[in-house]
Write the structure tokens for this entry.
Amino acid sequence: MERRKLTKEDIDKVRDVEGFPLGTDEDIIALSDAPYYTACPNPFIKEFVEEYGHPYDEATDDYHCLPFASDVSEGKSDAIYNAHTYHTKVPYKAIMRYILHYTNPGDVILDGFCGTGMTGVAANRCENTDDNFRLQIEREMPYVKWGLRYSVLGDISPIATLIAGNYTADVDIEQFEKDANEVLKSTAAECEWMFQTLPEKKENSLCLRLSLPDFAGRSRIQNRVRTGTSTASGFASQCDSGCQTSGRVLQLLPGGSALSAAGSQNQNAVRNRSGGDKLLFLH
């Protein structure tokens, strides 16, 4: 199937389908990559199945397959799996075993509850997978036939189908790498200062380091605040009026004096005044 622009006439064909998203036609068209991904019920599914599917004839069909009866265990450290988190996500390598067992190259697979599209990834990888996994499968399942399977993915969640569409889209690797490097470059220019750990040493200055290891379920975030000189007791008293703890975040408010140097005893005093272990250390 050739790529094409989704039109309002195409959208009108599925506008009354349950689960049609709340949004303007212009936004749906802008998000879509027709016919392979549409940000609404896909009006091209019938055409897709007619082009890639095989008509079923009960009189001549000889499909026979015993139930898959092996334990399947796959880790969740694969780079493709971790590219985007999603609840109840299944590693695509686990799905591949079922697809290879029950289907042949060229078959069409329907996943009506696709989530982020791991069934589609698995169907694509049946044509092109890494050598180590191929050897492992051929030892466990020597009867399998390698080759592309076509997949139809659907989900009532628009964000799920958006992620699935990007997981399974044809990508120009060189252009993707170029664009990704541009994003990393611009992000570093804007945000790199937040991750510096060796600030310049200035006379009469303070480097205060706040560690929030479980902020929003993410990895450690560190902030640094520089202020003028004062005493350890002055900073400790400031925490009563100049600091607030809200949830897992410690915020320093403007105003008050600050600490130029603190020993372990003063660190403990500050720690107690600022709300338990939210302030982990000063240097």
Notes: The beta strands are 108-111, 150-153, 208-212, 221-225, 243-246, 249-252, 281-282. The chain is about 35% helix and 10% strand. Confidence is low (pLDDT under 50) at residues 206-283. The longest helix spans residues 173-191.
